[in-house]
Design goal:
The chain is 53% helix and 0% strand. With 87 residues, the protein is mostly helical. α1 packs antiparallel against α2. The protein starts with a helix and ends with a helix.
Length: 87
């Protein structure tokens, strides 16, 4: 029973960690990312001003380099849950 609870807790903590990491990278309504080089052009937006809907949305927030701790916690949680089912 404890293995199931630890596995479920790891999955939830992994999801919360990844959400917190995405929110911690800067304001979501800011059209320009916080860490951009000065020579990069500003993105073309569908509407003028700060918005959550840029014309082209990059998938940089899904990158493995930023989210590996959360993904690792979720993978260990899934392995723990599957080990209970198999054994």
């Amino acid at each position: 029973m404890a293995v199931v609870l630890i596995g479920a807790l790891l999955i939830v903590v992994g999801v919360v960690y990844m959400a917190g990491a995405a929110l911690g990278r800067g304001r979501l309504s800011d059209p320009e990312p916080v860490r951009t080089a000065p020579d990069r052009p500003t993105p073309k937006l569908a509407t003028p001003g700060p918005t959550l809907e840029p014309r082209r949305r990059g998938l940089g927030f899904l990158g493995l380099s930023q989210n590996w701790p959360g993904l690792l916690m979720m993978a260990v949680g899934v392995i723990l849950l599957l080990s209970v089912v198999v054994l």
